[in-house]
Amino acid sequence: MLTDKEKDDIHKEMNQYPYPEATCIDALKVVQYHRGWISDDAVEDIANELKMTVDEVDSVATFYTRIYRKPVGRNIILLCDGTSCLVMGYESVYEYISKKLNLKFGETTDDKRFTLLPVSCLGDCDHSPALMINDDHYNNLTVNKIDEILEKYL
Ligand code: FES
User: Fold this and answer.
1) What's the CATH number for 75-151?
2) Buried b (16+ CB within 10 A) or exposed e, 20-31
3) Pocket of ligand 1, candidates 125, 132, 138, 141: which has the most ligand atoms within 8 Å of its Cβ, to mutate?
4) Residues 6-35: pLDDT tens digits?
5) Which CATH class is domain 4-63?
C-alpha cells in the first residue's frame, strides 16, 4: 500500500502531465526514493494509482537500469560492460571488484554496503572503462584505482 506521502508525491508529478500513465517513471522513482527498491506489491499499487495494468508498470520498471526490482545495498555500483569498456579492460576491473567484495553482478554484500550491477554504456566510451557509484562517475579505470574509489563509500 502506498503511503500518504508517496501518494502526495506521485500526485504532484501527475499534475505536470496530461495523462496519469505519463507519470509512471516518476511514480516508480518516488516509491524507490522512499523504500530503496520496487517490490511486486509496489508495482501493483502504482498501477492502481495510475489506472494502468500491472504488466504495463512492470515493463517500465524492468526497462530502466536504475529502477531496482530487488532490494539493493546502500551504494549501487554500475559497472559498464559495453563494447568500449570491454575492449579497454572492463574484465580486469570486474574481476577485481568481484573478488574484493565477493560479489557477482546482481548481488549485494552481506553488510548491504554495495550492490554490483552491469550497465551497457555510461556515455564515457572515450574514457573507458567506466563505472558509476550512486550518482558519481569514474572513468579511465584501472584495478589500481578501485580501492581508493570504494573507500569513499562507507
Ligand atoms: S561502453 Fe562503457 S562507457 Fe560506453
Assistant:
1) 3.40.30.10
2) bbebbebbbbbb
3) 125
4) 999 999 999 999 999 999 999 999 999 999
5) mainly alpha
**Nearest of 106, 101, 132 to residue 117 by alpha carbon:** 106
pLDDT in tens, 82-108: 999 999 999 999 999 999 999 999 999
Tell me if 17 sits within 8 A of 23, measured CB to CB: yes
- Let me know if the fold of 4-63 is the same as that of 75-151: no
Domain layout of the chain by residue ranges: 4-63, 75-151
pTM exceeding the 0.85 threshold for the entire prediction: yes
Cα–Cα distance for residue pair 16/94, rounded to 1 Å = 41
CB 86 within 8 A of CB 124: no
- The CB of 109 under 6 Å from ligand 1? The reply is no
pLDDT at 154: 82
